[in-house]
Design brief:
- This protein is an all-alpha fold and 89 residues long.
- The chain has one domain (2-88).
- It is built from 3 helices and no strands.
- It is elongated, with a radius of gyration of 14 Å.
């Protein structure tokens, strides 16, 4: 359940980045840039989630790494799709 919550949080954060890209930008290029900026921010959040799982919840790095890949990968795949779509516009 926690993993799903974090993934949904990442998708919501991507939506916020795209919203600000739309509000502060001039068109599709700004949306593409916003999606690109989301990726390193989401990496930092995902690694922080891994660190909390290892240090506070008692999991090993080996147990948390596949979770990191999914938690990071799903929102980043959507961000990459957004970059691709808006870069073509």
């Amino acid at each position: 359940m926690h993993m799903l919550s974090v993934i949904v949080g990442g998708i919501v954060l991507l939506g916020i980045f795209l919203l600000f890209g739309h509000l502060w930008g001039d068109g599709p290029a700004s949306l593409s840039t916003a999606a690109k900026l989301f990726i390193p921010v989401w990496l930092a959040v995902s690694v922080t989630n891994l660190w909390i799982g290892v240090s506070k919840a008692g999991y090993t790095v080996a147990e948390e790494t596949p979770i990191l890949l999914v938690v990071f990968g799903v929102p980043v795949a959507l961000a990459a799709l957004a970059v691709w779509i808006f870069a073509r516009s």
